[in-house]
Design brief:
Order of helices and strands: EHHEEEHEH
Distance between the termini: 41 Å
Mean pLDDT: 88
Number of strands: 5
CATH class: Alpha Beta
Helix content: 25-40%
Number of domains: 1
Low-confidence stretches: none
CATH architecture: 3-Layer(aba) Sandwich
Number of helices: 4
Structural class: alpha+beta
Largest sheet: 5 strands, mixed
Strand content: 25-35%
Strand order of the largest sheet: 1-2-3-4-5
Length: about 140
């Protein structure tokens, strides 16, 4: 089952995010738990942000959180997916589809951006494509 996240979900969402960030391909970046908590709180409580959860047997087992940000050089806004995780088959796609529908009701959002580490399961990209996303740009990073 999927549903809109509530403030009561925040502690569990922080726990899941910290677990997911352990597998970050960036290598030597240090996760700041207070920043994780602030981002999740913004996604859950912000009127222009998005957060839905997947629930299994009464426990939150996944989520999709996205934050509305300014496009650097263009008019309107971008919805940036910050985290997407689901342990329940089908719920990940349902949350992605719900986010796309929600964004369509927000005239200020011009673009939705979802990026993923290439070492993750290729099926994640396939699900994003099914939801209407297109792979457009490579991302190059230098982490010091």
């Amino acid at each position: 089952m999927i549903r809109k996240a509530t403030a009561a979900d925040i502690p569990r969402l922080v726990e899941l995010a910290l677990k997911a960030l352990q597998s970050d391909a960036s290598g030597n970046l240090v996760v700041d738990e207070s920043k994780v908590r602030m981002c999740i709180e913004d996604c859950v409580t912000g009127l222009n942000n998005f957060c839905w959860v997947s629930e299994q047997n009464g426990e939150v087992s996944g989520s999709l959180g996205a934050m509305t940000i300014d496009l650097t050089f263009h008019e309107r806004k971008q919805l940036q997916v910050l985290g997407w995780y689901s342990a329940v088959p089908g719920d990940g796609f349902r949350m992605m589809r719900e986010m796309v529908k929600w964004a369509a009701t927000k005239p200020m959002i011009r673009q939705i951006c979802f990026s993923m580490d290439t070492h993750f399961d290729k099926r994640i990209g396939d699900l994003a494509a099914r939801a209407g996303f297109k792979e457009t740009l490579p991302t190059f990073m230098l982490t010091r």
